[in-house]
Design goal:
This protein has 263 residues and is an alpha/beta fold. The chain has helices spanning 46-53, 76-82, 102-117, 123-136, 153-166, 183-200, 211-217, 235-240, 245-252, and strands spanning 3-13, 20-31, 35-39, 61-66, 69-70, 85-88, 171-175, 203-207, 220-225, 228-234. α4 crosses α5. The two termini are 33 Å apart. 39% of the residues are buried. Bound molecules: adenosine-5'-triphosphate (ATP) and magnesium ion (MG). Residues 13, 20, 22, 40, 42-48 line the site of adenosine-5'-triphosphate.
Length: 263
């Protein structure tokens, strides 16, 4: 896999006088194995751009391609390829069925990957995969028997990550995955994501309001404002010497106890 490429992507909602364009011709490249931070104030279009990549909303124009294969309106082989792009959401409850045990939820994701790759699985093989996936997200295998309601927010987010990993993703789009968590577990989920990326080599689009987290995790940063890309570049350049006033304002808005924000 070489890159997930957004090219002049435009996403609008509604029609006629009620038409609202949430993403305006945004071009962005997430190279394989790299992490790109996507920042911008609330409503700037970050989630919409990511959702378009996994087919949760449809661009009016532009292209989203994985290794040159168009993912918009994907069918057949392109749809199978699109499943290599996995999105993880702020609220893990949104992707975990409360009536399904953690193990059943992971089996569902494992079976989806088997169908995609047209390979038959076995009960024993899936069971071993569940243990492996839980281990990857640092959860004991006994959690397979539990239901989401019995897990902490951090544990639920780890299960959501394990579900994404079951798809053997080439790219993970992480949308505010630590924002709903207690501050005390935010760091451990971020470290986990960093370790998983180093180990598995997926490309990462990391959407966050937490600029310190973006600084810690991301090689590059893209800044969105009102659906438009206003600045992009290496993290150190964009966050230490921003070119745009808007980026400076975002940085200035970060509450901090003492200086500096970044080490
Ligand atoms: N399904 C929808 N129908 C209509 N408008 C939508 C829809 N989804 C998003 N929008 C609008 O598109 C704009 C961008 O929303 P989006 O969720 O992408 O922002 P965001 O940058 O992710 O914000 P936040 O940081 O709060 O998550 C917002 O004005 C939002 O109200
Ligand atoms: Mg969002």
């Amino acid at each position: 896999m070489s890159a997930l490429v957004f090219d002049k992507v435009r996403v609008s909602f509604g029609h006629g006088a009620r038409k609202f364009t949430a993403v305006h011709d945004v071009s962005l490249r997430v190279p394989a194995g790299r992490s790109v931070g996507l920042v911008g104030e609330s409503g700037s279009g970050k989630s919409t751009l990511a959702r378009a990549a996994v087919g949760l909303c449809e661009p009016r124009s532009g292209s989203i391609a994985l290794d040159g294969t168009e993912l918009v309106n994907a069918r057949g082989r392109a749809l199978a390829l699109r499943r290599r792009v996995q999105m993880v959401f702020q609220d893990p409850s949104s992707c975990l069925d409360p009536r399904m045990s953690v193990g059943a939820s992971l089996v569902e994701a494992i079976r989806a990957a088997e169908r995609r790759d047209r390979r038959p699985g076995t009960v024993a093989g899936r069971s071993a995969q569940i243990t492996g996936l839980l281990e990857s997200v640092q959860l004991p295998s006994a959690k397979a028997a539990e239901y989401p309601g019995a897990l902490s927010g951090g544990q639920r987010q780890r299960v959501a990550l394990a579900r994404a990993l079951a798809a053997e993703p080439a790219f993970i789009l992480a949308d505010e995955i630590t924002s709903a968590l207690d501050v005390s577990v935010q760091g451990s989920v971020m470290n986990l994501l960093k370790d998983l990326q180093a180990e598995r080599g997926f490309g990462l689009l990391f959407i966050s309001h937490n600029l310190a987290a973006v600084h810690y995790l991301c090689d590059d940063v893209a800044v969105l404002r009102n659906g438009r890309l206003v600045e992009a570049g290496a993290t150190a350049d964009v966050l230490h010497t921003p070119k745009e006033d808007y980026t400076r304002e975002l940085l200035a808005a970060v509450p901090r106890i003492g200086e500096p924000l970044f080490a």
